[in-house]
Design brief:
mainly alpha, disordered C terminus, Arc Repressor Mutant, subunit A, 10 helices, single chain, 231 residues, 3-stranded antiparallel β-sheet, Four Helix Bundle (Hemerythrin (Met), subunit A), GntR_C, 2 domains
Length: 231
């Protein structure tokens, strides 16, 4: 019971960080906005203590800043920040895919093929939950096949800086994923590390372009541009 309570206590700040991170990247809160702890605590369903811990974690990631005696404020978040996050993810994911091409077993290949088929069904049915679930499963299986625990942990630390579900449901990515995941699977079947790396890197970098385009359409950076124009 103690272990369960400790685990839950650790998860609460992560839930707060995920909630606020998504509000920042989606543009619901903008650079310069102060974050009040009480509304966040109410929205997530936690006390102020995990809210503060979660905000401190976001501060270490550069999403927000702690101003003494004033509180937490949203830090600038630019298009280049998005590209940088995806670039790092692309490099690590590409290396893991290359290693997986060498190490993957026939059973793991069959498992990936089953995941690809399930994801295709989810896309055809416009099942967003399924698309996200099988998309995560596809990449997770490749990372496991790479048998590189430390590299996988590094990738996970980068991926968590992007909202879990946000960029996976970007308009246009479902159709692209339907084409790209089978190509990556084929590269793994051929044991082609070079092809697997290249396809995985491009697959990830294309997601950055789609996310930036979507955020621009939502006006995430509009206020900054207007401010620059007025100054």
């Amino acid at each position: 019971m103690t272990r369960d309570r400790d685990s839950r206590r650790q998860q609460l700040p992560e839930e707060v960080a995920s909630y606020v991170r998504e509000k920042i990247i989606s543009g619901e809160v903008r650079p310069g906005d102060f974050l009040r702890m009480e509304p966040i605590a109410e929205a997530v369903g936690v006390s102020n203590t995990p809210v503060r811990e979660g905000l401190l974690a976001l501060s270490s990631e550069g999403f927000i800043e702690l101003i003494p005696r004033r509180g937490f404020v949203v830090a600038p978040f630019t298009q280049q920040d998005v590209r940088d996050l995806f670039w790092v993810q692309a490099q690590l994911g590409g290396e893991l895919a290359a290693r997986a091409a060498k190490n993957i077993t026939p059973e793991q290949l069959d498992g990936l093929e089953a995941i690809v088929k399930q994801q295709e069904k989810a896309i055809a049915a416009d099942d967003e939950e399924g698309m996200v679930e099988y998309g995560h499963a596809f990449h997770r299986q490749i990372n496991l096949a790479a048998d590189s625990h430390r590299l996988s942990l590094l990738l996970r630390s980068v991926v968590k800086q992007l909202p879990n579900r946000f960029y996976l449901s970007i308009e246009g990515r479902a159709a692209a994923t339907r084409e790209e995941h089978p190509l990556i699977l084929e590269a793994l079947r051929r044991r082609s590390s070079r092809m697997a790396r290249s396809l995985m890197e491009q697959h990830t970098l294309d997601s950055a372009d789609h996310l930036i385009e979507t955020l621009e359409e939502r006006g995430v950076w509009k206020r900054d541009e207007e401010g620059e124009a007025a100054s």
